Amino acid sequence: MTQTTPPATPSADPAADASTTPTEPPWANDTVEFANTASAPATWYSGTWRPFRNVIVCRMVPGSEDKVGPVFAYYDRTTRPQDLGVVGRALLSYEGLYLHVIERKEDPEVSGQRRGLPAFQAIAEAIAPYVTPYPSYWQNPSHSVAKHFYTWVPEGEVSPDREMTVIVQRMRPGSEEDIARVFAESDAGGLPTETGVTGRWLYSMEDVFVHLLEQDRVKAAAVRENHESMRPAFAKVMADLSPYVSPYRPETWQSPRDSVARVFHRWTAPDWQPEA
Where do Low complexity bias regions lie (predicted)? Predict the structure, then answer.
């Protein structure tokens, strides 16, 4: 009698994209390291080029970073995501959430290249016990992609030494327009330049608000050291956002630093840079 293998359970993460499953997990002894920011090669930052970023939001079993991170690390080493337009990724965790920032050469709407990391089958099976869908309407992996609703970048060139921080908060569902308005009003003034902000991207997933903040590393460090001088300006933004945004876990939140997600895997294509 012929036996058939049942199909694997689809992954909540659409960045994983189809190959074969190894007989033994070669990433079993790998480890992951945490960081609060993610950096990219200086070659990415020639001129004003920035990668096109998607953000995937899922739930993750707390403490499973060391199970999920090595899976992606292995396939980022052994396959070539850059051949499919993916030139970087950062995996982050925050209060039971899994955040996957995918960096592409260009918007898939322009390139037509929508596939992510090769080896979907292997990755889906490996991370399925730890990573599960977030939205209540989830039916397929594309529903894990957060909605992008605001971008701000300064005019002209900025420092090549930049870092990305991912801030996670709770939001009132449907308030994207109000949140975008608050940031647009602030970004129209001098605060972003004074604090070294070189880019801002806002995303939503039902009641989850994700803020990708790119900053000049030197200026960002100076602001952290002398935060009090910027307190009035920051306080106004926070007050204007307060009807729409709040801490994701108010019972444990004490300061804005408590809203920063932690990076547990970072990969950038080692042999690619933007065309001059």
Answer: 1-22
pLDDT > 70 in the chain, percent: 88
pLDDT of 43 reads: 75
Statement: residue 239 has pLDDT above 90: yes
* Cα dihedral: 172, 173, 174, 177 (round 10): 40
Q: Which of 127, 21, 18 minimizes the C-alpha distance to 72?
A: 127
- CA proximity to 187, closest of 202, 175, 176, 174: 202
Question: Pick from 165, 236, 160, 250: which is nearest to 200 by CA?
Answer: 165
What is the rounded CA–CA span in Å between residue 238 and residue 42?
32
Please give the domain boundaries of the chain with CATH numbers for all domains.
Answer: 52-268 (3.30.70.1090)
CA–centroid distance for 5 within its chain: 34
Place of tokens 């990969």: 267
| Average pLDDT for 248-266 | 94
Higher pLDDT, 171 or 224: 171
- Which string of DSSP letters, residue by residue, matches 72-98? HHHHHHHS-GGGGTEEEEEEEEETTEE
